[in-house]
Amino acid sequence: MQILTKNWDKIDPFHIDTYARSGGYEALRKVIREMTPESVVKEIKISGLQGRGGAGCPTALKWESAAKTKAQDKYFICNLDESEPGVYKDRTIAEKSPHQIIEGMIIGAYAIGAKKGFIYINGHYEKSAEILTVAIKQALEKEFLGKGIMGSSFDFEIEIFRGSGAYICGEETALINTIEGKRGEPRLKPPYPVNSGLFGKPTVVNNTETLVNIPFIISRGAKIFSGIGMKNSPGTKLFLLEGAVKSKGIFEAPLGTSVQELIYNSIYGGGLEEGKEFWFAQIGGASGRLMTAGNLDQLLVYGPAEYPLGCGSILVVDKSMDLKDFLVSWSGFFHRESCGKCVPCREGTFRLHEIAKRIRNNDLLPDDQERLEDILWTLGNTTFCPLGNFAATAWKDAIRIFGDKIFKAA
Amino acid sequence: MSIQKILIQYEPVPENVLRAVKDVNRHNGYLSENDCEEIAKYFSWPLARIYSLASFFDEIRIKKDRKIIIKVCSGGPCLMEKSQAVTRQIEMLLKLEAENDGSPKYKLELMSCKGLCDRGPIVMIGDQIFEKVNPENIDDIIKDYL
User: Fold this and answer.
1) DSSP string of A298-313?
2) Best A84, A88, A92, A313 residue to mutate vs chain B (most B CBs within 10 Å)
3) Any idea where the domains of chain B sit in the sequence?
4) Of A84, A144, A315, B19, which sits with the fewest C-beta atoms within 10 Å of its C-beta?
5) % pLDDT > 70, chain A
6) What is the distance between the alpha carbons of residues A120 and A162, in angstroms, rounded to a whole number?
7) Cα(A242)–Cα(A315) distance, rounded to whole angstroms?
8) Closest alpha carbon to A313 in A57, A86, A55, A80
9) Chain A interface, mutation test: which of B15, B39, B43, most A Cβ atoms within 10 Å?
10) Backbone phi, then psi, for A295, in 5-degree steps?
């Protein structure tokens, strides 16, 4: 079943007509002509769609809260910041099917009553920004955007906002702060953005991949959508296969597909590259857990799961690699990207990176193992936002599984 | 372009602050204290707020770069494509050490993911991005650039 990738390489991203010919903007027409905002929210609720950015929060929950909050101005934001190492799905969606994002946004804005939207694009994604700028212009010309959309009384405009290269800005409140011209530091929740977000107004922030599901749910019906994948985690997901697999790239698969199948099935990864032996896989980017051969049968779903699928990347690491390089890679990344707002994260990631470098250089200090445990606990339990916990996740797994190797070599 | 010419393109509303800051940074290569003051005046914001915004982002420089900055992606997928070997090759070629500011002319840093994982390893020199870099072609890339 193709929902997310059905238009890929079949339509011309620079021409709205090719999208319209393949059924594009039909869902919007249905929404405008036949549905009330309440019934749109209800439909999404029935579909069970969960946010694809990583946390898996039910999309309808955000929409419903924002719709219920009374305010003159509301905002609808599409999160295309994506800076998790190993993840480029949203960039690819924007480059291959930009109108699907815009259609999803307009429907969302209609449901919550927003008149203005932003697409928050990663500062490095030049091509995505270029394509989406053209797409917005064409949607305006066709009256899918602007004043009185398709002859109704519903107005909605979309502005593109470019980030400036900071991982933390993918977090919704940090993202909102940047649009307001503030440092990209996360805010204390509550209040949640759906009640008080951009400029203090109700704001929905949805991941790009979440939004491209919306046209399908509306035109084909929530029941069909909820029948795909797993009962508590319906729909399909873009999985990114990287590292030592034979075919790398983005694959659409139903939620609830096992890691084993994604790596070894010939329609996905097709097994490991010639002469390489599986060591472990990291699920969900630098903040993801490590999965060893014995656990590959785990199903990737949203909701409570032992191995959270995050944004869907699967990095396959073979035995020729050196774990120490990964330790430095993870700690270096979070040390650079910690926003500095809270001390446990700012200092914790700094010290973690120092220890990582000592591990790599084989000059561990006598107390480092103890310090490391202390730092990882602090990062996991005391930081202001989840970034600290992210920084500790892969490390904790690495120590649990390969601890002897890490400390013995010292 | 003078800073006023850049600023005049932006309506002085909060969502334009970062846009203006980035634009000035792009034209001048960095934001001087004077630039920050001009921007603050234009948006009627305190200088401290402009400076705190500008100093937050990696891409925005608050000092003039006197060195050529080379960055290698340190993300997992690039690592799997041997970005480590690229880093080592650059270290040898330019006789410096990554993440150590000892060299007078160059600076070699590790950088975070640029979302180009299907074309790695990724190397950035100045503002220019190079894809599918390997230890064999990095010498030519650097020589061409310099």
Assistant:
1) -B--SSS-SS--TT-E
2) A88
3) 3-56, 68-145
4) B19
5) 100
6) 6
7) 5
8) A86
9) B15
10) -110, 10
Q: B53: which chain A residues are within 8 Å (Cβ-Cβ)? A: 181-183
Structure tokens at A78: 């599409």
Question: Is the per-residue pLDDT at A410 higher than 50?
Answer: no
> By the 8 A CB rule, do A315 and B77 touch?
yes
Q: Which residues of B touch A249 (CB under 8 A)?
A: 118
Angle at B5 between CA B126 and CA B66, to 5 degrees: 25
Contact present, A60 and A44 (Cβ < 8 Å) = yes
In chain A, which residues have their Cβ closer than 8 Å to the Cβ of B129?
124
A218 is written with which tokens? 């509306």
pLDDT digits (tens, 9 = 90+) for A15-72: 999 999 999 999 999 999 999 999 999 999 999 999 998 889 999 999 999 999 999 9
Record: fold of B68-145? Glutaredoxin (3.40.30)
Q: Which two tokens stand for residue A148?
A: 């009185």
Q: Is A153 helix (H, G, I), strand (E, B) or coil?
A: coil
- Both tokens of A60, joined, read 């309808």
Structure tokens at A24: 């594009």
What mean pLDDT is reported for chain A? Answer: 95
pTM: 0.96
Output b/e per residue, A349-370; b: 16+ Cβ within 10 A.
bebbbbbbbebeeeebeeebbe
CA distance A86 to chain B (A): 6
